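Hey, resending since the last one bounced:
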Amino acid sequence: MSDEPELVIAGAGIAGLALAAGLTHARAPWRYRLLDERPALGSTGGAISLWPAALDALDRVGVGAAVRAAGHAVGPGSVRTRAGRVIRSLDLPLLAVRRGVLVEILHAAVVPGSVGFGCRVTGYRCTGTGVRVETTGGPIDAAALVGADGFRSLVARTLHPGLAEAYAGFPAWRGLTTAPGVEPVQLWGRRQELGVVPLGADLAYWFATVREPEGGTAADELAHVVRAFRGWPDPVTRVLAATDPATVSRNDVLDREWLRHWTDGPVVVVGDAAHPMRPHLGQGGGQALVDVALLADLLARGDVPAAAFAAFERARRRPTRRVVRASRAASLLVDAPGAVHRLSALVPDRVVLRALRG
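The structure tokens again:
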């Protein structure tokens, strides 16, 4: 084992852990080390909805059955106006699972002791034999580096110095509720949206966006959301009333410049580090899983890292750009006047599903 080349994975979130799980599952000829700035394993964001492509990716990294057992099939739902009028009814093939549960399942599938906490990858320098990984704990010489360190990726910012980003115009809130009997629904109106996805056993998660200035914080984020959605139709009031404030998170949504390239010899970025997207299609985590399932397959073949990384970028660059654009288009649709929402009901379901699947 000690003679195998070492791969450093920046980030021990869903993407980094899934890549490590995939390498273990495939018995790939790699030692790996995951580095994460957090003090311990954790996750925020409530839950994640997984499309079939993401579930297939989880099968490929060896944890699909466990995730299906822990998740909840979403089933039929609807998109409605703020007044409660149905814009569209859809039966989406989604599985919803709590993010923390998914992270724990993935963590259980990696080599014990391979995750190092309290250590952030801050950059890198390619060498003649691989890459020198700069970290807050000192440099590490490795054969290759994968940046799975999210939107704020310092691997991506070393790959592209001066990487530009801009506020999208709204924050996103997420929370968990115990309101019983809720069905999948999204409500749109007044440049706002609130969606609810059941997780089974009277548990559900919700997400919301509201147009407001960047950088704002409230002493009570849940109360802030309640005020923003006062007067909206069922189930908004009861979902928010049954929410534990401790589960509510807020993040400003940012757009980032599209990377000119994702690789630099033995270095590659994946997931949000490579192609962050707005949250409106719920595809960010799923697309990261598709990324790393492919990357694990390529690395398991024993190719040199630069060749595997280049093949990965060729395969994934165009599909992910479509999803980035579709997510932005969905965001703009939410932001549109009510008349546009009603007209969107004329778009055939097959077209909508194709866009949602990316």
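The two ends are 39 Å apart (CA to CA).

Sorry for the duplicate.
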